[in-house]
Amino acid sequence: MRVLFAPLAGAAGVGAVTRCLAVAEQAVMRGHRVAFLAPAGYPMLGDHPLGATYAVPRPRRPATVRDGNYATFAEALWVRGMAEPGYLDAAVTAERAAIEAFRPDVIFTEWQATLAVSARLTGVPLVATIATPDVTRLVGGGEEDTAFRHVQDAYAALCRAHGLEAPDCVERLLHGGGTLNVAPTVPALEPLPATLPGTLYAGPLLFAPLELAGAPAPPADGVRRVVVYLSAGTVTIEDLLPELADAFPPPAHDVLVAAREDRVGGHVLPHTFGNVTVTRTPGITRALAGADLLVTRGGQNSLMAAMLAGVPVVGVPGDHVEPRYNLAVLEAHGAARVLGGVPTSAELKEAAGHLAATAAAERARRLGALLRDTPGPYGVVRAMESLASGRLGAPDRWRPPAPAPVGAGGPASADGLQPAGAPSHAAWI
């Protein structure tokens, strides 16, 4: 089998590419060939060359956009410059050329909506990752995003230009038209994707070489480790460092801050002051081994790693919608406490104390047990093998799903992959 992987071309963080790499690694281990679609110099692909990379255009962020914050899927595409007609045409041209050259049996993407057009034009099955905030309009009764109607119109025009029926929204283009939607979570955390046809709950898609990279050794017994990972967001490490040092003082605490940059606050990394160590891209899973608390923006991968490790979370999402949703779900389960803006040391200390007093670590461990009972990247590859061999049928590409209330889907079924009553796809794997 040949699989073409396409992380979001305009991604600000590394979550999209790491999920692609996690599945690609398993595909290679099962004897398959993989390749990637990405702009030149895309993060991490050069460090982990699992297959060839075919170049696609790099979208240009509109000059009026100050940061990558968004409230809807359409806005997310706009702030990344992925709704400009010139970009859309160039992207489809490059994608079709790569498909012709590599001849994949399956295409796997995170958020690259133009591939829904390219895949249909070339007849290649499409697999797309799915997250609740991106599909609420389809299955949760969300209202039309009128402020970004021009984004919907641009993708509709792209479809018509290539002789395809234009769906009513870009969400349906990607997730209603995809043969298989992969939810990197569990129904207990995100029940809504199950109401779309062809959803597989895969659980965490974590890339081992990144997750297990070197990290400072755990502190001595009796010292509480606090791991901090903010990634790209409106709350920065520089904002938080003084508050962290005050909230978690020595000798009772050891604070490990994971940064993506080479310098923080003018200091070359790694840099230590007092009991706070700032280091570049340690393995988060490795760092969480023996940790007592994670302070994070709320990206999905870091939260999944925390639950697997049984580590409760203090969330500092800033203004970003998806991290706020991710953290709110964990807070509802009693495994997280969410703080607004740039939290003060007093707020951090109070949140950590609340989590310790309410058995949040035990709640995190229980969620981790649910996450472990999923097929993971291996299961996604098995599903793609079924897809490539024709054992898995494709739903009608543009048919809207039946309306369903928010939270529909009910309790998890015995196999842990689908809510009870939803179509079971356990046979794929």
Describe it.
The protein has a 7-stranded parallel beta sheet with strand order 3-2-1-4-5-6-7, sandwiched between helices. It has a 7-stranded mixed beta sheet with strand order 12-13-9-8-14-15-16, with helices on both faces. It has 15 helices and 16 strands. A hairpin with a 2-residue loop joins strand 12 and strand 13 (276-280). It has 429 residues and is an alpha/beta fold. 37% of the residues lie in helices and 15% in strands. The chain folds into 2 domains: 2-203 and 374-428, Glycogen Phosphorylase B (Rossmann fold, 3-Layer(aba) Sandwich); 213-371, Glycogen Phosphorylase B (Rossmann fold), CATH 3.40.50.2000. Helix 3 (85-102) packs across helix 4 (114-122). The longest helix has 18 residues, at 85-102. GO terms for molecular function: glycosyltransferase activity. Residues 392-429 are annotated as: Disordered. This is UDP:flavonoid glycosyltransferase YjiC (YdhE family).
